[in-house]
Amino acid sequence: MDLGLPPAIVTLLTFAVIGVLLWLFLTRTVLGRGFSVPLRYMLRKPETAQYPEEPRPVTPRFHGRHQLNRYPDGLERCIGCELCAWACPADAIYVQGADNTLERRYSPGERFAEDYQINYNRCILCGLCIEACPTRALTMTHDYEIAADSRQALIWTKDQLLTPVPEGAYDTPHTDREVRDRGLNYYGGLAVTPPTLHGGRFRPAAAAPSARAGQVVPTGAPPSTDLAAGGDH
User: What does the alpha-carbon distance between residue 195 and residue 221 come to, in Å, rounded to a whole number?
Assistant: First the structure.
């Protein structure tokens, strides 16, 4: 049917109708949404990463290689509880705990990890193990370059996972006397006793002043020795 419109107007209306139909197809249908993804990237400038010379930064919450942390005085945070091994869905972690002794103390708890292994042939880097750790002994780094030439080389042991000794400290084992003389608060809470106060009256956690909460540093640093901040002890 001839509407008597100029050919230019007819062409313009034709392209407009085709554009509207194409937009509806790409946004309102499953097949169209699938096509829209490659179409969007076809119009973008390609990005070429110069890896490994210039590795790209990862996100702050990226799950990479694991590490076993220490306290500032060199003691190991791991207490050999094996909760990380129980939480691992791929059965990639093996922990063998042992008891600390008076002359050989590795952690501030009763036990420590005598043997610790992570099998990266199985590990899926999900992070469930670090969520289960009660002492923040096991965390994950941003290091993802853990490829190896053999399966055996992908089984990391405690010596490979343990972080270096902090500056000013020395490696384990320590003696109980050395740890007691330092008087550090390893497992602090609202009602902890300041490191320099030995003995005295202890308050229940419910009655502890909230000012003490700011002195419990989750990074493992010793709390302040200012007794005034804790009120009457």
Answer: 12
Do the beta carbons of residue 61 and residue 127 sit within 8 Å? Answer: no
- pLDDT tens-digit map of 60-71: 889 999 999 999
pLDDT value, residue 133: 93
Beta bridge partners, 115, equal 96
Q: Is the pTM of this model over 0.70?
A: no
Q: Amino acid identity of 17?
A: V
Lowest-confidence region among 51-55, 83-87, 156-160: 51-55
Question: Is pLDDT above 80 for 1?
Answer: no
Instruction: In whole angstroms, give the CA distance from residue 104 to residue 31.
Output: 66
- The separation between CA 31 and the C-alpha centre of its own chain, rounded to angstroms, equals 39
Structure tokens that stand for 151 in this block: 């399966």
Residue 14's SS3 state is helix
Cβ of 178: how many Cβ atoms within 10 Å?
A: 13
CA dihedral (105, 108, 110, 115) positive or negative: negative
**CA distance between the termini of the chain:** 97
Q: Are 172 and 78 in contact (CB under 8 A)?
A: no
Q: How far does Cα 132 stand from its chain's mean position?
A: 11
**Is residue 44 helix, strand or coil?**
coil
Q: What is the DSSP string of 129-165?
A: HHHH-SSS-EEE-S------SSSGGGEE-HHHHBPPP
